[in-house]
Amino acid sequence: MNFNNLIEEIVKADPEFPERVSPRRSAIKNITSFGSKVAVAALPFAFSTLFKKAYGQTATSSVTDVLNFALTAEYLESVYYNTYIPRFSALMGANEAPGLALIRTDENNHVKFLVGQLGSAAIAPLTLSNFDFSGGSGSNNGPFAAVNSQTAAGYDTFLALAQAFEDNGVRAYKGQAGFLLGNQTVLTAALNIHSVEARHASHLRRMRQLRGAALKPWITGNASGIGVAAASVVYAGEDNVTQGGVNVTTLPGAVATAATEAYDEPLDKAYVVNNIVKLFLRP
To answer: Are 234 and 146 members of one domain?
Structure first.
């Protein structure tokens, strides 16, 4: 077997193959420099390893699956803001409305982008009729039912639930990034959306803080700072202190709270769908 020709053919079919196996590109470029019979004999095994590195993470989820999952979450947020921002406009401070309006625009643009990328493969549009923002899975009487009350308490619930949606978005995008490694354009866009979701979450936390909520602009442990037990599903696992196999709390000068605040933990698709999104979708 001529491995040089094989690699050339793979690159023709998938121009991003060298990027997939980075930082092993030098090994590919210099593959003809193996002079010994031992090295040549080992090539099939080395090549097999490269293939696993290049394509292993995409084996369980396609780009289309990931984007439709993201689109579902973006519809959730987009419909939420489009519905409730007008309802609570009279209760918003003059310095609150612009930020919320920008967040709504961002979420609408995220939907447009994902639909544009998916084309005919996109899921059917989701509207208010598909959601129960009380978190009651269609009962309209879930733990966030106060959001449907056009009162100050309802507005506070709106902001708290918005924070939970944005925090969920940060973790969900992070959990799916690995499956997009084969498409650099989509991966870059997804990471850009991921960072915007994080900014939204921080802004909403600051808004709530100014309204008297006791919380920081970032997550400490697995505390939601929302005051509704049902929100805990969004923050499960955020109290992890082990990064790269190292317990961060054991490092010199480490502060326990900072060990969780310094890192966001990913959530996988099954968890988000089964434990979070299903609370707000009607059967």
So the answer is: yes
Question: Distance (Å, rounded) from C-alpha 168 to C-alpha 107?
Answer: 14
Alpha helix stretches (DSSP H) within 89-183: 97-118, 152-176
CA dihedral for 211, 214, 216, 220, sign (positive or negative):
negative
**185 & 148 share domain:** yes
**Do 116 and 233 fall into the same domain?**
yes
* Shared domain check, 158 and 47: no
Which among 40, 58, 76 is the end of a domain?
58
Specify whether the CB–CB gap between 168 and 276 falls below 8 A: yes
Domain total in the chain = 2
In angstroms, the CA 201 to CA 265 distance is: 15
Residues of the domain holding 220: 63-280
pLDDT in tens, 196-241: 999 999 999 999 999 999 999 889 999 999 999 999 999 999 999 9
Instruction: Supply φ then ψ for residue 262, to 5 degrees.
Output: -80, -10
DSSP structure class, residue 30: T
177-188 pLDDT, tens digit per residue, is 999 998 999 999
Alpha helices in the chain (DSSP H): 3-13, 17-20, 25-29, 37-55, 63-87, 97-118, 152-176, 184-210, 232-235, 256-261, 269-272, 278-280
Q: How many CB atoms lie within 10 A of CB 88?
A: 21
- In angstroms, the CA 263 to CA 67 distance is 24
